[in-house]
Amino acid sequence: MRIAFVTLQTTKQTNTEGARRFERVARLLAEQGHEVVLFCGQWWDDYDDTFVEDELTYRGVTLGTAVSSFCTRLPALLARFDPDLITVRPTPAKQVVAARTGSKLARAPLVVEWFGDENYDPDGRSTRWAASTPDRVVTPSELVRTQVRELGADSRQTRVIPESIEFDRIETVEPDETSELVWGHPLETGANIQDFLLGLAELREREWSATIVGDGPKRAEFEQEAADLRIDDRVRFVGACDRDRRLEIYRGAHAFVQTAYREYFATELLWALACGCIGIVEYQAESSAHELIENADRSYRVTNPQQLADAIVESGEFDFLTSDSTWKSFDHGAVIRNYLEEYRALTGADQ
Fold it and tell me: What is the pLDDT of residues 275-294, one digit of tens each?
């Protein structure tokens, strides 16, 4: 299948979760042998308008990221590429308009990949056009799907395809059994680590240890909160950590606690569940984390620190695991098959 991906700014200019997912999907498709080209503002220092990195071909539409020039040149370049399908990020909305023009010239369906962390005006006419016009809008969760439908997308037009992980990577690291409990998220305003710390404080008389994975501007403040609650001797802050280090910690822990106010997709929770952790999720209106554990036996949904503390105690009834094959359906290969099924349904292809 020949697939065009379109985004003015790549992860080289804006390294957000949505941007990383967009390029990961393109790269995984390319690795499977599909002809994939990512049309973008040129970020490499070269006179050549194409650049290949990790099996993904980037095609510079403009030198830099000027929106008007990018959108003017894009339709003809897409038509010349003659793709079976075009997928585009929703912001800036003008690039969706240009991609739609290109899709008409190429007679190819248009898919918008809407992660949720894009910077857009929910009341803007162009935003609503970007949500309602494509042949399909793909989101990582029901939370984001609902947001897109509120912007004007039809329910039949939207699909949820979750984030993916490299499941086999889990077995390549040894468990670090230093802590029974783990929490992971950037240490910023929306982290809501306070509810986790309050839940732990309710259990002062019990034996436990906890690890905080993540870094950010609020770290010192959160460390002080742990000290104020007199639990800092049993709570270790280990910083951001690379993926392998996180997997070591998750494999060695018994439960992962999720309290953040906002998650378009709870990727760290997914990794922890795949590493065998019990999932304890505090419900938040702007978080999709509870969707992951909706039908999972080894999990708890709570609404306040006291319930969180109770769930930690009850989680001790479950066996300790260092991996859980239940979550293999979220492996990169399985999720990419979901994408291909959707693409084939749109194009009528059997490739």
Answer: 999 999 999 999 999 999 99
**pLDDT tens digits for 122-148?**
888 999 999 999 999 999 999 999 999
**Domain architecture of the chain: domains with CATH:** 2-164+331-347 (3.40.50.2000), 167-329 (3.40.50.2000)
Q: Look up residue 183 and give its amino acid.
A: W
Full-model pTM: 0.95
Contacts 24+ apart (CB under 8 A), 128-135: 128/152, 129/93, 129/96, 129/97, 130/90, 130/91, 130/93, 130/96, 130/97, 131/90, 132/157, 133/96, 133/100, 134/88, 134/96, 134/100, 134/110, 135/109, 135/110, 135/111, 135/346
**H or E element at residue 270:** helix 267-274
CB of 9 within 8 A of CB of 40? yes
Evaluated on CA atoms 306, 308, 312, 315, the torsion sign reads: positive
Record the tokens describing residue 328, joined without a space: 């293999």
**Contact by Cβ (8 Å): 147, 130:** no
